[in-house]
Amino acid sequence: MKKPKALVLCGDGINCELESEYALQLAGFESSLVHTSQLLSQPALLKQHQMLVLPGGFSFGDEIASGKVLAIKLKEHVQELLADFIESGSLLLASCNGFQVIVQMGLLPSVKANQTHVSSLVHNTPTRFTNHWVTLDVDPATTCKFLTGLKTIELPIRHGEGRLVVE
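and the corresponding structure tokens:
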């Protein structure tokens, strides 16, 4: 049986890419590290994969806001392709700074083209770094392939700009 392919973004302040690649291999994926500049110059690479992983870190030093510079670059070069990728049922896993990137891109709550950006991640209240674990309930009606069959998940919360604001 042919293994599904996962593209793990790396470079420019991204970290945890090696751990992400290893976890994907354990889960049965053929994973490859692709530098940000390579994806930006060759966006069609996305079409060769069934999963895209945006790991954590401090992409581009989190200039302007967490994940903002990488979000701008991805919007410029791969937004349309990424929307098609997601709409086709391919997987997107974005953790830590990667999640901040997809929120900054306007991919949440939807990937529809030309939709108004309705959410943002802003500084915590109070404005200090948060570091603890939380238990979240999983909606039994979820269609998320990562959560199917789960009732709860435990996640680490570690951020300075993680307060989700939705219009």
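(Above: one complete record from the training split.) Helices lie at 17-26, 36-41, 68-87, 97-105.
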